[in-house]
Specification:
The complex is a heterodimer of chains A (457) and B (115). With 457 residues, chain A is of the alpha+beta class. Chain A has two domains: 4-117 and 155-312, no CATH class; 323-439, Alpha-Beta Plaits (2-Layer Sandwich), CATH 3.30.70. Chain A has helices at 19-26, 42-52, 62-76, 89-102, 123-128, 159-166, 181-191, 198-211, 262-269, 338-355, 375-379, 401-408, 413-417, and strands at 4-11, 32-35, 79-82, 110-115, 149-154, 171-174, 239-243, 248-251, 279-280, 285-287, 292-295, 301-304, 307-309, 314-334, 362-368, 389-398, 422-423, 433-444, 451-456. Chain A has a ten-stranded mixed β-sheet, sandwiched between helices. In chain A, strands 5, 14, 15, 16, 17 and 18 form a six-stranded antiparallel β-sheet that branches. Chain A has a three-stranded antiparallel β-sheet with strand order 9-10-13, with helices on one face. Chain A is globular and about 70 Å long. Chain B has one domain: Alpha-Beta Plaits. Chain B is 21% helix and 33% strand. Chain B has helices at residues 15-18, 42-48, 51-57, 102-107; strands spanning 10-14, 19-26, 29-36, 66-71, 76-81, 110-114. Chain B starts with 9 loop residues before the first strand and ends with a strand. In chain B, 47% of the residues are buried. The chains are: A alpha+beta (457), B alpha+beta (115). Chains A and B meet through helix 9, strand 14, strand 15, helix 11 and strand 16 of A and strand 2, strand 3, strand 4, strand 5 and helix 4 of B.
Chain lengths: 457, 115
């Protein structure tokens, strides 16, 4: 049995620093590169791409990245786990296979595909089976938005990732597998953890949670002592060194910037946290109140004591539906009386929208530089008339496109026919944006069958 | 002469002096993880930074209730602020649609601490 495995986070989200995965595979020894691509509504964008072209529907950026990394990955036998497959893991795998062949790596690479998460084509069948798919936050029934559904994916766990690795996959490309499952899967495979080893599975889940947001565990977006965190320009992304007994260290490559500390890892542990005693994944229920952290030298935090409980018989489903339209317009007002001018402009704008009879679900005004981040907490002591500048930021949201479209034409006129000392309109008229909204729900596990396939190169 | 425990002089301090924090989103709910800067500050956070107090702090800024969870192992409290994000995620019109800076908004709170 393997003694320890090193799992490196290559990015915290789709759009993260392109250099990070490259430095993770070249900066020192690792066994796995973990790449999370999927945010809550990403699947709906990918579903739309797939409906236009059956060969799309995955994170296209993953292919050129693999083209860049494959020679190193093959040379150092580094494996990859990623949910870059989106709603089309097969097309993603085939594109990576083609890249590998172009690099002369035929016969030296096996790609694993994990599917079975996509429920969009089965929604009516599932509803007929008594799966109500009620909104977890609002309890509304799916029938409210059934005709506007754009994507529906169950969150799969680490199990099928481990199975793919066990069958010899070097690169595991999945659809909607949980972020934590991409880290736990390699541990289950390397250590032979059983599917009911709840404490071990919980430990691997905690490890996944710590590194799933990339540099947020190694000095990025870290509030404590932020001015003294060294060399964020060359920040090292986090690496988990996991052991078979479920303990692990969080660290990063030597010579990189950033910092791995108990305080910083704690910040990441509580990030996007619900009830800490019940961190529910498809694999287990992890209890974050059992985690013990200790600094074990520079840039090394030891994690132990993690306890877990049996997984529930449900899976979370991430659905996305068409909601409506929104637009945001901004103008910048300068000293003197910048805040007063911006407030006056807002009043004028709202009067004009009323006079036009436009109906919005919401109109939201923020004054950037004054209250956009902390609301009335920031203005409790008053706002100085000497404030150098204020950005007026007005957003509108409606079910129909027409009022939003009209709103976008009401911003620029304020430059000539509103309060003075105004600028900052170089970007032009704001564009109405389609809103795709998120609908979280639960489904019985027995309704979802993960599928693992291999593709030789 | 030592003061009786009940008579320890108190002063108002900003939470930022006693704690650090990170916040994020789950739908229309913002979560704030509040972490003691030193383990000995944790009991003070537990006593002073109640769910009711946090709900008052954010009054008018959130539409739902506030829940609090304790993580004594990490000297941390986790708060869930429901209805904090104008619908959340892609629906929200807020600059801070993902609740990233609710963390420092909480750290503005003043609490009573021993002098």
């Amino acid at each position: 049995m393997t003694e320890a495995v090193r799992i490196a986070a290559g990015q915290g989200f789709w759009g993260d620093w392109l250099e990070a995965p490259v430095r993770q595979v070249t900066g020192g020894p690792i066994d796995y590169l973990m790449m999370d691509y999927l945010a809550e509504v990403t699947m709906s964008i990918l579903q739309k791409q797939k409906s236009r072209d059956a060969t799309l529907g995955y994170a296209k950026d993953f292919v050129p990245l693999m083209e860049r990394l494959l020679p190193v990955l093959v040379e150092h036998r580094i494996k990859v786990t990623t949910n870059a497959g989106g709603v089309n893991p097969r097309a993603c795998a085939e594109a990576v296979a083609a890249a590998a062949r172009r690099l002369g790596l035929s016969g030296r690479l096996t790609i694993g595909m994990v599917t079975g998460d996509d429920l969009l084509g089965r929604l009516d069948e599932l509803l007929a089976h008594g799966q109500a798919l009620r909104n977890l936050d609002t309890s509304r029934p799916l029938s409210d938005v059934r005709d506007r559904m754009l994507s529906a994916n169950a969150y799969l766990g680490a199990g099928p990732v481990a199975v793919a690795l066990g069958r010899g996959a070097d690169i595991v490309i999945t659809g909607r597998v949980t972020d934590t499952g991409l880290t736990l899967g390699p541990m289950m495979h390397a250590f032979g953890w059983r599917a009911d080893a709840w404490d071990r599975l919980a430990a691997g889940t905690v490890a996944g949670h710590i590194i799933e947001c990339g540099a947020q565990a190694s000095g990025g977006n870290c509030l404590i002592d932020w001015e003294r965190i060294p060399n964020l320009a060359a920040v090292g992304y986090p690496i988990v060194e996991a052991r078979a007994d479920g303990t692990f260290d969080v660290t990063k490559h030597p010579g990189t910037g950033g910092r791995v500390s108990v305080a910083g890892v704690t910040e990441q542990l509580v990030y996007e946290m619900g009830n800490p005693a019940e961190y529910i994944t498809p694999d287990c229920v992890a209890d974050f109140t059992t985690i013990q952290l200790a600094q074990r030298g520079k840039d090394r935090v030891a994690v132990s004591g993690v306890r877990g409980r049996p997984a529930t018989d449900k899976l979370k489903v991430s659905l996305a539906y068409f909601y409506g339209y929104k637009a945001v317009g901004t103008l910048v007002y300068a000293w003197p009386d910048a805040y007063e001018k911006a407030q006056a402009a807002d009043r004028i704008l709202r009067q004009r929208l009323r006079d036009l009879g436009l109906e919005f679900e919401t109109i939201l005004t923020e004054f950037v530089g004054v209250d956009a981040t902390h609301g009335r907490l920031a203005t409790a002591a008053g706002v100085s008339a000497e404030i150098p500048e204020v950005q007026l930021r007005v957003g509108v949201r409606a079910r129909d496109q027409a009022p939003v479209e009209r709103f976008t034409r009401e911003i620029a006129p304020l430059i000539l026919n509103g309060p003075p000392s105004v600028t900052g309109f170089a970007g032009g008229r704001p564009k109405p944006e389609e809103i795709v909204a998120y609908w979280p729900a639960l489904i019985d596990k027995r309704e979802v069958q993960p599928c693992v396939e291999l593709l030789g190169v | 002469m030592r003061r009786a425990p009940g008579r320890v002089k108190q002063k108002k301090v900003r939470l930022y002096e006693l704690a650090h924090a990170r916040s994020g989103d789950k739908g229309d709910t913002a979560n704030i993880g509040l972490i003691a800067r030193a383990p000995e500050y944790y009991p003070l956070l537990v006593r002073e930074v109640t769910a009711a107090r946090v709900a008052r702090h954010f009054r008018g800024m959130i539409t739902g209730r506030v829940e609090r969870y304790e993580l004594p192992n990490l000297h941390a409290l986790n708060f869930l602020l429901h209805g904090a994000l104008d619908g959340g995620g892609t629906v929200s019109l807020k600059t801070d649609a993902q609740g990233k800076v609710f963390s420092t908004a909480l750290l503005r709170m003043e609490v009573q601490a021993p002098r």
